[in-house]
Structure formats: structure tokens, C-alpha cells
Amino acid sequence: MDTRRSGALAIAAALLVGLLTAGPAVADPPTHEVWPEVDTWLRLSPEWRLSVFIPISENLDTHYREGNLIAQADYEFGKPRLRRRLMDEDRARSMGLFLARGGYIGGKSLDDGGEEYTEYTAFGELHQRIPIKGGLMLSHRLRSELRWLGKDTHDFSTRLRYRLMAEREFGAGRVSLVPYVSVEPYYDSRYDTVNRVRLIAGSSMSWTRRIALEVNGTYQSDSQPSSKQLLALNVILHVFFDASRTP
Q1: Options 2.40.128, 1.20.120, 3.40.1130, 2.60.40; CATH of 3-242
Q2: Residue 87 burial (CB < 10 Å; 0-12/13-18/19+)?
Q3: pTM score over 0.85
């Protein structure tokens, strides 16, 4: 089986899992949210990179808001090395076939001092990048989370997430456009089931080495603790710094 066919089968299988899991929530009307975010990236070397994300979410109907601070470190490895620009890179560069990431999330509801929502999470990720003919990049991401939820109780749980994503770069002069689609089911130990599926389609655009703007639409379906759907507009400003470049 060639790479293109195996990639297409993987996408189809993941979409099928997502649709089957989302099925129980189809009848519920979705809520609508907007997710502004600022991501700052610092490349230390061809292999190492640090980043800090500051995402905020707001329910457009109730105006309920949540904020998070995410700090993480990436390490790339594996040969052969690929020369591509992905949606979270400032320019085309050589990169490994694999990426390992570890990080921390702190979050809370913003208008009540964290009474409704407080989270402290340590997570680890492993990414595999697979180039496909036609300039398409397929990537698998497996993410494990150790979560402490609640302002006072700090209830412990775990979550396992798998994301399948396809992306491709298009360039015109100094402008680079990277559209992508992804599907991601979540397993949550609190419910002992896959209780969430997230589908995303969007694109990033860069026109300088330092700045990229990413916009996507997200559909999210939850089956536990209650059946619900979510539609969100995510707008992300990426800011890049590179300590590995010679002045």
C-alpha cells in the first residue's frame, strides 16, 4: 500500500470515528464561541523550540469567558529531514519526521475568579509527519494529559487525545498560505469513554519572518457529561523569534 493510499485510509477512518462519536449530539443546537489567541515561539536551535500560548474563549450568548496560559517545549528528531513550512513555522526550514512536546496548562474562568472552571494540566505529545505527493503533509499527534480540575478540590483525571491533520503550503512572493483540516477524538478517564470529537478547518498566512495569522472554524461534539455541540471561530496571532539565526 503506497503512502497516499494509507494516508487517505487513515483520514477516512478518523473521520468515521469522529462522526460515530458525535452522533448522539447531532439533535442538540450548538453554542457559539470566539477564541482569540496569541502564540509566541522561540527557536533555540534546529531541534529545540519554546513557546507560550495565551488563548481566551468567550460564549457569544452568555459572555462566559475562560483564559489559559500554556507553556511548552518541542524537540524535533528523526531522518530524513523535510524542508517545509507548516502552519506554526515562520519560514520554510528543514525539520525532523518526529516532534516530541511537553508542557503545562493553567486555566480558569475569568469573571468569577475560577469558581466555574479551574485547571492545572501537565501534558506530553508525540507528532509524526508524513509527506505525501502533491506537497501535502499528513501528521499524527498523540497527546496524554494529567489534569487537576476544580479551584479547591483539584480532582485528578487523565485524558488521551489523537489528532490526524493534513496541511499544504501555497506561496506567492513573500506571502505563504497553509490551509489545513484535522479531526481529534478525546478519551476522558472521568467517563471512561471517548466523550469529545473536534473537527477543525482553517489556514494560516504569513508575510514576514516574525508574524503569521491563523484563522479556523471548529466544530466540537460532546457526549459526556451532557450531550452538546459547539461552533467556534479561532483567531490566532503567531509571533516568532529565532535565537539560532546568525545576526
Answers
A1: 2.40.128
A2: buried
A3: yes
